[in-house]
Amino acid sequence: MKIWITLLLLLAATTQIEATLENRTCKTCHPIIYQEYQNSMHSRSSIYRDSIHKSVWDIHPAKQKGKYSCAKCHTPSDHNLIEGKSKLVNNEVQLTEPISCQQCHMIKSIEEHTKSNKNILTTKPKTFFSADKALKGTKIEFKEESHFFGMLKGKSGSPYHDIDYSNEGYYNGDSCMGCHSHKQNDKGFAICDLEVKQEDSKESCISCHMSQVQGSLANQKESATHAFHGQNIRNSTSALLSKYIKLSLEKSTGGFNIKIKNEATHTLFPQPLRLAQLRVSIERDSKTIELKTESFARIIGTNGKPSMPWLADSIISDTSIKAHEIRKVKYDTVLQKEDTVIVEFGYYIVNPKVATKLGITQKSATKFIVLTKKRFSI
User: Fold this and answer.
1) Has residue 11 got a pLDDT over 70?
2) N or C: which end of the chain has fewer CB within 10 A?
3) pLDDT, tens only, 202-251
């Protein structure tokens, strides 16, 4: 009898562990997407995988109170933490899937709030939302079908879940706005606001950040391409998003102008830690002439001085480039025949000055990442 009780307890414990790791089933049918996810920001959003998030959290006043206030977006898959049944601990969910596949594919709608939006998840068991223009408005259920008197058998749909293609949020990008829209601190000040204008464009969060790449969507359903699930601001943003930033040059009296056209549907890098820069140089007579670097950032603070996000109550300065904006930067250097002007637009994940104050030394966070680059021959 004791042996049976012990076995049942072990089985219950194992079941509980399996239940917390929601992605284990996903990789069975979606190996390519699952592999991409391993390097994504969604898989690295907890303090145990993201050194930047940890550096900020370590000095956050909420940490002193033992209340992790970022779980809603950074670790929603740790259900015990979200429901207040446990504290923030270094567990398997935090290390491998703080934002699981299911968390994103179960978003039924977005509840808008002034401070920050909220994801409303579907309560229908084993129902996941997805986008496919050819199947829009349909719902695919798993079926086993027989043909020619049972001699031929076929399957359709997923054996693990139903697929609902009718949710508009997965086509226009609204499903991302529960976490990626805006955030106010306790003072009612917006520390970040992407000022998204998706309604003004054919593009959306998903079409830009999850563009189609080579590889099959699933084992059961062979396809030439699938939506990329490995977005990571540290290493893949440039390749995917450079096409939305257009650089051009125009001569002017006494110099020239560089135009930066933001074709994205949101403000570029308005987050408090980010810093975007335009770097321009001229190749002339086998020499390189470095011109001024133009910086773009939204700096927030208190009493006219920069401060941590939870203390900020005002904007010190805001030179960030808005959605669909064309920003012109003037240079007073007169161009000569056979000059080559090299223009780079890129960003720091963490402003180097802020990184020093926070003690962030990770190279991927402190190096300048070129988003797009162009050469102009005069």
Assistant:
1) no
2) N
3) 888 998 899 899 999 998 778 999 999 998 887 666 667 788 999 999 99
The SS3 call for residue 166 is: coil
CB within 8 Å of 303: residues ≥ 6 apart:
none
Q: Is 356 helix (H, G, I), strand (E, B) or coil?
A: helix
Amino acid identity of residue 16, one-letter, is Q
Reduced 3-state DSSP string for 205-269: HHHHHCCEEECCCCCCCCCCEEECCCCCCCCCHHHHHHHHEEEEEEEECCEEEEEEEECCCCCCC
Say which CATH number the domain at 295 has.
2.60.40
Q: Are 34 and 23 in contact (CB under 8 A)?
A: yes
Question: pTM of this prediction?
Answer: 0.86
Phi and psi angles of residue 20, each rounded to the nearest 5 degrees, phi first: -75, -30
- Which of 175, 197, 231 represents a domain boundary (last residue)? 231
| pLDDT score of 345 | 97
Report how far residue 323's alpha carbon sits from residue 241's, in angstroms, rounded to the nearest whole number.
Answer: 14
pLDDT of residue 309: 95
Per DSSP, the chain holds a count of helices (H) and strands (E) of: 14, 22
The C-alpha atoms of residue 7 and residue 55 are separated, in whole angstroms, by 43
Q: How many residues appear in the chain?
A: 378
Segment among 47-56, 110-119, 192-201, 281-290 with least mean pLDDT:
192-201
Q: Is the pLDDT of residue 178 over 50?
A: yes
Give the per-residue pLDDT at 68: 94
367 with 283, same domain: the answer is yes
Integer Cα distance of 274 and 267 in angstroms: 12
Per DSSP, 318 falls in state E
Asked whether the CA dihedral 221, 137, 177, 318 is positive or negative, the reply is positive
pLDDT score of 17:
40
Tell me the three state secondary structure of residue 95. helix
Question: Over 70: is that where the pLDDT of 324 sits?
Answer: yes
Could you tell me how far CA 109 lies from the centroid of its own chain? 18
**pLDDT confidence of residue 151:** 55
Are residues 324 and 300 part of one domain?
Answer: yes
Judge whether 17 lies within some domain.
Answer: no
Do 221 and 312 have their domain in common?
no
DSSP 182: E
Give the structural domain span for 302. 245-377
Say how many domains are in the chain.
Answer: 2
Residues 258 and 370 in one domain: yes
